[in-house]
Amino acid sequence: MAGAQATELFNCSVPEFYTVISDYEKYPEFLAEVKACKVVETRDSQKLVEFHVSMIKNFSYRLWITEAPNKGINWVLDSGDLFKISNGSWDLKDEAGRTRATYAVDAKFKVFVPGPIAKALVTVNLPNMMSSYHKRVKELYGK
Fold first, then answer.
1. Residue 34's beta-bridge partner residues?
2. Residue 64, by phi and psi: left (phi above 0), alpha (psi -120 to 50) or beta?
3. Which residues on neighbouring strands pair with residue 83, listed in sequence order?
4. Which residues on neighbouring strands pair with residue 36, listed in sequence order?
């Protein structure tokens, strides 16, 4: 299994950052690799969200996302054409009015991908993704 984790400090409150990460259908507006995203089903604190992504090739998948408002979100793979496993989370903590956010993901691919290549596929986009979230926070909150 390939995994990646990153922790960053964002210039916004925890509720503001939670709004950004839980507004899935807006992801295509600021995450270049996400071409479409929609909430398919909602059950209490869980949402089934379908993602259409383009990274090296086009693929789609569905995640069951469990929301804990202003604390974070966790997800597990429901279905998809690339991943056998895709579990992850955002964990949010207040730090003097800013948000310390830890993003973690573990993924296993349906087809054989050598370990170092799988790790690269999971981690290569992480810095760009975090940068996109910083830009989104600045765009929405001017911080």
1. 53
2. beta
3. 109
4. 52
Whole-model pTM? 0.89
Q: How far apart are CA 92 and CA 13, in angstroms?
A: 10
Q: Among 48, 44, 41, which residue's Cα sits nearest to residue 62?
A: 48
- One-letter amino acid for residue 46 of the chain: Q
Q: Are 98 and 10 in contact (CB under 8 A)?
A: yes
Query: How long a stretch of residues is the chain?
Result: 143
**CATH code at position 54:** 3.30.530.20
Domain that holds residue 30: 2-141
Show Cβ contacts of residue 16 under 8 Å, excluding neighbours closer than 6 positions.
99, 137, 140, 141
Q: List, in sequence order, every residue forming a beta bridge with 48; answer none if it has no partner.
A: 41, 64
What's the pLDDT tens digit per position in 55-109? 777 889 999 999 999 999 999 999 988 778 889 999 999 999 999 999 999 877 7
Provide the number of structural domains found in the chain. Answer: 1
